[in-house]
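Example record

One chain of 344 residues, shown exactly as stored in the release files.
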Amino acid sequence: MFTAMSVSKAMLCVYLLVVGSNLVADVDYQRAYGTSIIACGVWIIIAGVMTPFSSCLGFLGSKLHNKFLLLSHAVCDTIIFAIQLTFGSAVVAYTASDHKVALRQMCSLNTPLKYEDECLDYVGSDRYAGLKLVWAAAYGLAQSDAEALGRIEAWEADNKCCGFGPPERCEVVEEKIPSEFSTEGVPSAYTATRVVCGDEDSWYPSSGQQAVYCGHFFDPTLAFPTVGGCRYEMPGTRCKDKDVDYDSLGCAAAVQATYDGDVRAWRTPHLLLSALGQHEITALTSPKPDANERLLGHARLYLRAYGHRNGMLLLLEAEGTRHPSSVLGAGTPSSLTFGKNCPP
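Predicted structure tokens for this chain:
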């Protein structure tokens, strides 16, 4: 049993270290959910580091029959379980949204069929601002990094969307981006206010460079046409010059679904491994009958079933091992054995 528990502890250790390291090292989570998520990652890493230490205490305590070590092991496991429960739940809580999925999807369209009055509130929300920083950072890298460009175009292709915000439906939101969101690696044009629009009504600012550049003319038939911005917000090369229809879709809702889904996916293995750890605490700290107690139990069952003196002698032998003077009587040898003293 201890071997099986050790395997589960090893899996738990690796899992906690991977999850905690991702939260601490991946800046996208700090852009999307705020830098406070780093503290959750650090505590999860601490729980992962404590796990092998706790397993060593449990192994030594079990091998040496040392109650102090077993108690220390149980205390460590309880602390690890509390950290998992508290900070694991806190990480999942970051994905809670004030706007339901149907509203987010509808408000990412060029022409929402409903929820239109609530779309500006969604576009101006902290969650939208954080996820836009994720997209803007990837878009900034895409100017010189083919892998980053491929990431944006994969988002667009997989979700049949183009750019981040709703196409050709830019609405200025002048509120500042919350200071708790990381703006590391984000182009400065997208770190001042939440939503910036271009010169043409409902267009976004022109963006990108060279092959990724998106800039559309007010009226391309003029002799000297003027760029009014981009119909899409930071689009990839695949769709930046596509015509905008009423059902053209931005990727904001899809990006949120992707990141929230990744975070929530940690919950199932987290709860399973936590339950295994808690089971080990119960198993190792539960009292176990010693050999004499088991012998007494078998003897009493034998005596109750058959009333034979073999059972009585076995019972006396077990009792004599524990209390020879009170059960067998003074001067009576306590070396009674089932094989020697009982007739066949």
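Notes: The longest strand covers residues 173-176.
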